[in-house]
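Now for a specimen:

…
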Amino acid sequence: MQRITVLLNPRAGSRNGASADDVTAAFRSARCAVDVRVADGASIVAAAVDALKGGSNVIVAGGGDGTVSAAASVLAGTDAALGVIPLGTLNHFSKDLGIPPGLGEAAQAIAAGRTVTVDVGDLNGRSFINNSSVGMYASLVSERAAMERVGRGKWLAHGLAALRVWRRYRRLRVDVRGAKVEAARRVITPFVFVGNNEYQLSGLELGGRKTLAAGRLHVCMAPGMSRRGVARMIMAAVFGDVRTLDGFETFTAPAVTLDAGVRRLRASIDGEVVTLDSPLTFRIRPRALRVIVP
């Protein structure tokens, strides 16, 4: 018999408002009894650990990608399964797995779905379900969070942060070692993006993944690309294919190491900015996470 615990982050995304009563009612309609625990972003990990120790074999993350990532970091490598109620703004992970966006539909999918295994990324011992990066994107995430703390809306904060980071354009000098790189290669790049499996890089499919179980990291960088080139890259991502741009490089690998020649380096992990010891070692954990999908 399944013991289901729902970890509900009431502050998730722009569509927040799902209460513990709403979640309980949705699962009751799906003929499931659940234990709903309200937890914010900072306490999701502790709540997931507690639920796992309490014997729950299905732990449901109700929130955005950050909430899901925190729960997944606890469940990866265990026999427990992750369920997802997408309540965030973007919900990349759930979209790539075909999980329906509505509360009632997601509850039905968890109650009657099937369990699959998917890959998890790892950066210096920290798990990620979507992506991690250094350089411009990590700076953008940090700037956006600062603006949100002073009351800016999420999309306005994102736009203003992107403009500010682009104006003070900086490049990172880093040694890259990975697949097809016999020796460390030094590059000067505005960013290094590392995805959990391969991302689509053009048009309407931008940011999506066809699979989460190919056992590969997706590494993107732009050695030598200027600030104007970065602007062209953003336009190409929406209206064309960034892979056609001079200076843009991408490859897949089971592991990659970045060494910036400094003791500590700031990185984003599924939208959270952290400072880690350098070098940064990324690796894929093949099929380490059990997830319930429709």
Observations:
- The mean pLDDT is 85.
- The longest strand covers residues 280-293.
- The helical segments are 20-29, 44-53, 65-75, 92-96, 103-112, 136-149, 154-167, 227-239.
